[in-house]
Amino acid sequence: FIGTFHGLGANILRREHRLLGRGPNFVIFDDHDSFDLIKKIIKKELVKGGENLEILEKERFGFFAKKISEIKNKESCLADLRSSKKQRDELALEIYSSYEARLKENNAFDFDDLIEKVVYLFKKYPEALAKHKKRFEAILVDEYQDVNPKQYELIKLLARNHQNLSVVGDDEQMIYGWRYANLKIFLGF
Length: 189
Hints:
Blueprint: H1 5-16, E1 27-29, H2 31-48, H3 53-73, H4 75-83, H5 87-105, E2 108-110, H6 113-124, H7 126-135, E3 139-141, H8 149-159, E4 165-167, H9 183-187
């Protein structure tokens, strides 16, 4: 297999979709589709009004889209939101839950799910991980300086037993900080 992390994730999800409650013909939401879904969820909340109306009007869509992406890419984000007493963080969790439910209803994954859901799947279903570890007896990761924590976790899961892992990168060419790339991962190899 040669491809991107997201291509690999899509490949694995096509094989394991049923374990995550999706059908074989699931769709992959791009950023525009995801943003539209978040807008629909927020507009529904705005119509309901109530105590969160001021926060919804202030933060709007971008804040919640960013929080959902952070939850899926940064391990600590979900725990931080759950322990927060801020009303906007509690609301972000509600919108995230609605968003995840709506993705499932639409037989869809979003772009971040292509990594996050595979990591979740491998942790929850060791037999699925074992099957895919056999597929990848050696792994080469190019542009390793742009790996984010979820991608790193995926690599560790797949390479845990055989440890046939090679990486290539340049710490001065990191360009995906906005996608949560973490230079410490590269420097710690």
